Amino acid sequence: MVIRRTSHAVYDTQYHLLWAPKYRKWILRGDIREAVRDLLYRVAEDFDFVIEALEVAKDHVHLFLSFPPRYSISKVVGML
Question: What CATH number does the domain located at 16-79 have?
Answer without folding.
Answer: 3.30.70.1290
